[in-house]
């Protein structure tokens, strides 16, 4: 076998047909639940003015500092663009650009798209990955937070992975609460700098809150003893969080309180949450989100509360596989049409298309003339039935119907064969289900 000249770039992957079964299933579940809850779909461009991300995600965030794929446009006045590393910033930009402020509130939007981060590639961490996400813009009631979290939880349940993840929940309060807390943190960390990793030393100056969710062991030990946010949080923020917890209990969504969860994007306020794998913890969060009440104003709009969530499809798929979940194979071939001789080949062409028009997945090996090669292919693709047409059959107006599962066959009139196959494959074929699993 000759070796290929090229491979996919580091950290990016082809989605091969078997993985598409999972991707299609995830998309279907997300679409279904979002539509039911009144969300409408939005797609923002794969790249934006880099400023959209600098301003929203924050200059001191890992994403903006290290993980953006940026490039310049051509022309006399080149612009700086970035491949989108996440979805919220683009949605907010689109919300403002298209005057969605005029729409009835809340504005509920969802997306299913590729995103790009210059991350260090490892298991579950890629440079191109896919997220499904949803945003609710224009309401501040904590009941909305509970509904957004419930939606994410419900999707996990339907995908069969809810038992493998735990919901980590925290509040990072209002901007004022955070300013007070940052001071407390700086006081606590001052004098302990030598025990911090290089990133955290920097974070002390740029974004002290991020010191709390560093994954380095020494930093985690220090973080566990840091002053708690509770001591500076306003009564209003506490009340919001109390209500959210009550709503989640009411909705029977289990959660774990995690005072160290702050999220890596600067736009959050109040509610923050992530779904962590029960075995791998924060390393492989399958999704996360939170409230971003200040972002729309920061991007040039009127002060408008908002909240959202995004899940990582590659990670969700990995957990579905671990849980032994096999989405129905819509690509399964129900009928294989084999032919021998020119007249039979001519007849089989029309037959193939008629069966496909009836919604039955049908494959033929038009380019292969040997019957042995054709039947070998029918076996390899796991066809449920084969229809075999030779010159003798064509002359006699007959066709051979072979049940590939039972290994039996019969010769029957070709007249009415399409209706007979519809009957045999039944609704299952029309729904393109894997027949032999039924
Ligand atoms: P995020 O936590 O940065 O949040 O990303 C959400 C999810 O995307 C992660 O939990 C993870 O499953 C997946 N993900 C992130 N980076 C990678 C990667 N390099 N490789 C594979 N999967 C990855 C956001 O993006 C926010 N925009 C979520 C949000 C929506 N907040 C409010 N609204």
3D structure, described in words:
With 438 residues, the chain is an alpha+beta fold. It is built from 15 helices and 16 strands. It has helices at residues 17-36, 50-57, 62-66, 88-97, 142-159, 175-189, 198-206, 217-224, 235-250, 295-298, 313-322, 342-357, 371-380, 391-396, 417-430; strands at 40-41, 47-49, 70-72, 80-83, 107-116, 128-137, 165-171, 256-257, 269-277, 287-291, 306-312, 335-339, 362-364, 385-389, 398-403, 408-413. The strands form three sheets. The chain has an eight-stranded mixed beta sheet. Strands 13-12-14-15-16 form a five-stranded mixed beta sheet, with helices on both faces. A hairpin with a 7-residue loop joins strand 3 and strand 4. The longest helix has 20 residues, at 17-36. The chain is elongated, with a radius of gyration of 28 Å. It starts with 16 loop residues before the first helix and ends in an 8-residue tail after the last helix. Residues 432-438 have low confidence and may be disordered. The site of histidyl-adenosine monophosphate (HAM) has 26 residues, from strand 6, strand 10, strand 11 and helix 11. Histidyl-adenosine monophosphate binds next to strand 6, strand 10, strand 11 and helix 11.
Uncertain residue segments: 432-438
User: How many strand units?
Assistant: 16
Helix fraction bin? 25-40%
The rounded distance between the terminal residues' Cα atoms is 39 Å
Q: Pairing-aware structural class of the strands and helices?
A: alpha+beta
Instruction: Give every kind of bound small molecule, once each.
Output: histidyl-adenosine monophosphate
The total of helices stands at 15
Rg, rounded, reads 28 Å
Largest sheet: 8 strands, mixed
DSSP strand content: 15-25%
The coarse silhouette is elongated
Average the pLDDT over all residues and give the rounded result. Answer: 92
Question: In order across it, which strands form the biggest sheet?
Answer: 1-5-6-11-10-9-7-8
């Amino acid at each position: 076998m000759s070796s290929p000249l090229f491979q996919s770039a580091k950290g990016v992957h082809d989605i091969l047909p078997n993985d598409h079964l999972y991707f299609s299933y995830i998309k279907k579940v997300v679409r279904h639940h979002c539509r039911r809850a009144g969300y409408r779909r939005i797609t923002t461009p794969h790249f934006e003015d880099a400023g959209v991300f600098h301003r929203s995600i924050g200059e001191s965030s890992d994403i903006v500092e290290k993980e953006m794929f940026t490039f310049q446009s051509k022309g006399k006045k080149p612009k700086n663009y970035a491949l989108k590393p996440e979805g919220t910033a683009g949605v907010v930009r689109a919300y403002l650009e298209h005057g969605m402020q005029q729409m009835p509130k809340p504005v509920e939007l969802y997306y299913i798209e590729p995103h790009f981060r210059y991350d260090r590639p490892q298991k579950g961490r890629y440079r191109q990955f896919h997220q499904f996400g949803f945003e609710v813009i224009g309401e501040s009631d904590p009941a909305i937070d509970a509904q957004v979290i419930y939606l994410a939880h419900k999707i996990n349940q339907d995908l069969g992975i809810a038992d493998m993840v735990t919901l980590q929940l925290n509040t990072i309060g209002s901007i004022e609460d955070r300013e007070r807390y940052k001071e407390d943190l700086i006081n606590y960390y001052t004098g302990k700098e030598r025990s911090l990793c290089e990133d955290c030393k920097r974070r002390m100056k740029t974004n002290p809150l991020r010191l709390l969710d560093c994954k380095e062991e020494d930093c985690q030990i220090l973080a566990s003893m840091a002053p708690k946010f509770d001591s500076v949080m306003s009564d209003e923020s506490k009340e919001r969080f109390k209500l959210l917890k009550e709503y989640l209990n009411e909705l029977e969504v289990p959660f774990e309180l995690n005072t160290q969860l702050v999220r890596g994007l600067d736009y959050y306020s109040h509610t923050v949450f992530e779904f962590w794998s029960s075995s791998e913890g924060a390393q492989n969060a399958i999704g996360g989100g939170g409230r971003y009440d200040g972002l729309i104003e920061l991007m040039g709009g009127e002060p408008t509360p908002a909240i959202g969530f995004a899940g990582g499809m590659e990670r969700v798929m990995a957990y579905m596989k671990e849980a032994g979940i096999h989405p129905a194979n819509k690509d399964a071939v129900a009928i294989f049409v084999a032919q021998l001789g020119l007249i039979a080949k001519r007849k089989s062409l029309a037959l193939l298309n008629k069966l496909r028009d009836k919604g039955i997945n049908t494959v033929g090996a038009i380019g292969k003339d040997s019957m042995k090669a054709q039947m070998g292919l029918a076996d390899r693709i796991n066809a449920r039935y084969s229809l075999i047409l030779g010159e003798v059959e064509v002359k006699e107006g007959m066709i051979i119907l072979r049940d590939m599962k039972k290994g039996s066959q019969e010769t029957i009139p070709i007249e009415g064969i399409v209706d007979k196959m519809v009957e045999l494959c039944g609704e299952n074929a029309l729904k393109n289900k894997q027949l032999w699993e039924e």
